[in-house]
Structure formats: C-alpha cells, structure tokens
Amino acid sequence: MGSVDAYKKLQVLLVGSGGIGTMVAYALEKGGKAEVAAVLRSNFETVFENGFTIHSVDHGEVLDWRPTSILDSIPSVSEESWRAPYDYVIVTTKNVPDIPPQITDIIAPAITPGHTAIVLIQNGLNIERPFFSAFPANPILSGITFSGAIESPPGTINHHNHERTFIGVFDNPIAASYSQKSRAIAAARRLVDAYTACGPEVDCTYEPDVAYSRWRKLLYNASYNGVAAILGMDTSRMRFTEHIIDDLIRPLMQEIRATAKAAAGVELEEKLVETMITADVYDKFFKPSMLQDMEKGKFIEFENLVGEPLREAERVGVETPTLKVVYGLLKGLQFKAGERNLEDVVVPRSGEGLRYGGCGKS
Ligand SMILES: CC(C)(CO)C(=O)C(=O)O
Known about the structure:
Bound molecules: ketopantoate
CATH topology of the largest domain: Rossmann fold
Keywords: NADP, Oxidoreductase
Number of helices: 12
GO molecular function, one term: 2-dehydropantoate 2-reductase activity
Family: Belongs to the ketopantoate reductase family.
Shape: globular
Order of helices and strands: EHEHEEEEHEHEEHEHHHHHHH
Number of domains: 2
Helix content: 40-55%
Strand content: 15-25%
CATH superfamily of the largest domain: NAD(P)-binding Rossmann-like Domain
Protein name: 2-dehydropantoate 2-reductase
CATH class of the largest domain: Alpha Beta
C-alpha cells in the first residue's frame, strides 16, 4: 500500500454488506479512524431508506445506522477520477469460485495498483491465489473472523456471537521483495489499529502466522459446515446423536490435521480437535454458515472449505476418505442449487472427455 497520511481516515470499500460485513464496517466507523463505503445489493433500498438495524451482542441495539457512503455498484477509481483511491477493499462475500463471476473481476475497478490493500475476510484455503495473479502489486491480507451475524430480514443484522478477528498477510510467493512484504505487514497492522480503536467491544489482533490460523479454522469449516449442509442439521443435534461426531466430524478433523502437516508443514495440536468439536455452546443449536446458505437456496462455498484441502491431500498423498465422500455429496448439493436457478433440467452430453460425463448444454 502507498503511504497513508496518519491523520487522514482510512478509505475503505466494503464488498459484501451482509451480517459479517456490516459488523466489520460498524466497528471501523465506530473507531473513528476509517470511513467505509459499503456496496449493497439486495438490501440497498431498505438500507438507503432506513439504515441498518443492528441487534449486537457486542454493541447493543443500534438503529438507523449507515456507513459513510452506501453504493449500489462497485465504483471505478480509474473512470471516476474525482474518487480518492481506496486504501483497503475488504471482501466479506461468500466464496464460490465454481460459480461465475469471479470476485477478482468484480472488485478490479476499485483497485488502485500498488496502493489498495485487499482484505479477504472469508473462510477457506488457498483463497488468496487468484488475487496474487490478478493484483500482483497489491498487498493481499487475510482476515479470519469467529463471529456469528446473520442478516434477516434485509437491513436487520442479528449479531449473536462475540467477534474475534485475526488480520495478517498471506504469504505471496510472487511479491517476494522485502519492501513489498513489509508494506503488506504495515497495511495489516494499520487496519488492526483502526479496528481496535472501536474499543473493548471488539477483539481484533494482528496474526503473524496466517497459514496456521487458516488451517486451524478449517478444522471447523471443513467438517461441521459440510456435514451440517448435507444433513440439514445444527451442531447441537450432531453432538446429541454422538455418532455423527464420532463417525464424521472427528475423522474429518483428523484428516485435516494430517493434510495440514503434510501439505503445509502446519502442526495442529491434537487437543484442537476436541476444542473445535465443542466450540459452539452445547445447546445453542448453531447453524454453520453453509447450512444457512443451503436453507436460503443459495450456492454453497464448499470448494475452498472442502475441495481445496482434498486437492492438497491428493497432491501430497494423504488418505482422506471421509473428506472425499463429503466433497462428493456437497458437489451434488451445489448441482441442485444450480438447477433451482434454471427453468428446466439441462441434460448433459454424455462422456465427452469429462470423468463423470458432460455438463454443458447440448
Ligand atoms: C466459525 C463460524 C461458525 C462462525 O464464524 C464459521 O466460520 C461458519 O459458520 O462458517
């Protein structure tokens, strides 16, 4: 990121102002060190008229709240020369790389090469790779958040789990120079500073070991999220039945541990498995985000949560039988989600060089 005047507020563009994104924007604005422009889609009109209504475990009841600006599309910094460059573009959308358009294309008009830091507050593994190639001169930052916030109905945010966010720098093999790395670290630290200015209500820290924290969170997301979506079941019910934990969740977590070690040299301590299994309050009936998306008929973000660790495991020869079955079932769910958007069933051409048959329109 180019130099930012220490006395000027950070200029932030937020892409994805649902539950998590809105709480990020709220914390940054409340801290007084950042101005947020939020790009809204389905909730644009409601929020434009009435602002957000926030019921927050951390911030209490907030009515009629708006970020500094509300936009209905991605601004173009090159075409609209009066726009100041964004210091940060924070992406909090769901990550569905198997469904176009790609987020790198969506945000491209808002990125100033060599200046804007791109912050991915999203789940999953290897999510940074397309950004390294699309924006080689920009810092790409990792945001991991443990927070529960759901938007329902549009414009109303129910923030029910205390927020803990970790921001760090993805290790970019292309941006190998020392100065590029130190600029990225400075950008991450500056964002943490703006976030924590909000006060003790939020818990945001600089994360020096992004690989570890991503694989650690994957223990939860690669197991609970997928199984919850497949079974249509919250994490409390899985724990009540016990066998779902013993036969699916724990084996999945052990497969992720083995893959993390072999593929990335990341050592996830054995005791983390039980910590993650019991992460949700026992009788809170928590629905992981993939289950929530499925219930809303949306596409599910399974490629970076389950597909990528599976591909990493195959690359380094780790056996992950449970992960493979879960991946296959999730692919089926995604196919069904796609069909819901079509008027008719598309009968694929058979074979045609694809392992399980064609998938194009004949
Ligand atoms: C950890 C948790 C449950 C909430 O942030 C999550 O990542 C998800 O539901 O996808």
